[in-house]
């Protein structure tokens, strides 16, 4: 059962969360493996995407944002793009586009950052937008200040959080074919309620970077958590082993329907809008060659087919005549 736990360190400016995704993660992998057009991920790709899924769930739960959070990593390796999308209710979906062979021992840079061109982007897309408002997006490279390649998703995201919020953050992430899990420790903001858009970043937060002794102590303890421990131990055992000398206030865990869970927002209607956006002439040209149009959702594997009659109806149905309509992804 997937679950997410939040906690505070009593009297200290530090908060934390642990996420363990089991059925949620295996459902994502099952749908990928059953998609005959793609097949199962190679283990290094699987583990990278699993760490991204755990991290994105933690970040969405941390900011309480009324909109979708999209975490993307893209570059010049065999993994051209890896995407995780998490909704405010923690419904999530994830996929990776892989071109070519992946070595069984491939590192992060070998997957997406061969020539140091890889990037990580986080997009916050509000459900309700003001006129002219665009989604907020922040981008960081997959290398450090000395242009040395970063080999951990956690390190990339820690750097991102420091830039966007001016808040110290420690992430421990791990994934295999059964579990995607993560531990987040973060220094609380000096004022306001920061989020990834950096809308309330204060000078006080920036001045505190790296200097809070309470956070530094707890971060060292958190960083001692080993990959196998994160993947195999229950949350209670993890917290007891790491922070047995600390006073912690824990909140009601998110489990079952409230926990992070797989859900895909694709639909035949959305695919229809995408087809209409191609234009009647282009659609007729495709149908002349293939006799029908088939579109597969990369997130869930569902296939949508439109024969000539279906396609013709798209251009007469007012509800679908939306210019620039989005596709199933």
Sequence-ordered SSE layout with sheet pairings:
Blueprint: E1 3-9, E2 14-21, H1 23-34, H2 43-63, E3 67-74, E4 79-86, E5 91-98, H3 108-112, E6 119-126, E7 136-141, H4 153-165, E8 169-175, E9 180-187, H5 203-207, H6 213-223, H7 227-232, H8 235-243, E10 248-250, E11 254-255, E12 261-262, H9 268-278, H10 280-290, E13 293-296, E14 303-306, H11 308-314
Parallel strand pairs: 5-12
Antiparallel strand pairs: 1-2, 1-10, 1-11, 2-9, 3-4, 3-6, 4-5, 6-7, 8-9, 13-14
Run of helices and strands: EEHHEEEHEEHEEHHHHEEEHHEEH
DSSP strand count: 14
Question: What overall form do the CA principal axes indicate?
Answer: elongated
- What's the tally of helices? 11
Low-confidence stretches: 197-202, 319-327
CATH level-four homologous superfamily name of the largest domain:
Hsp33 domain
Write down the Rg.
21 Å
Instruction: Decide which structural class fits the backbone.
Output: alpha+beta
Largest sheet: 6 strands, antiparallel
**Mean of pLDDT:** 85
Name given to the CATH architecture of the largest domain: 3-Layer(bab) Sandwich
- Portion in beta strands: 25-35%
N-end to C-end Cα span: 26 Å
The figure for the number of domains is: 2
- Assigned CATH class of the largest domain: Alpha Beta
Helix share, percent: 25-40%
CATH topology description of the largest domain: Hsp33 domain
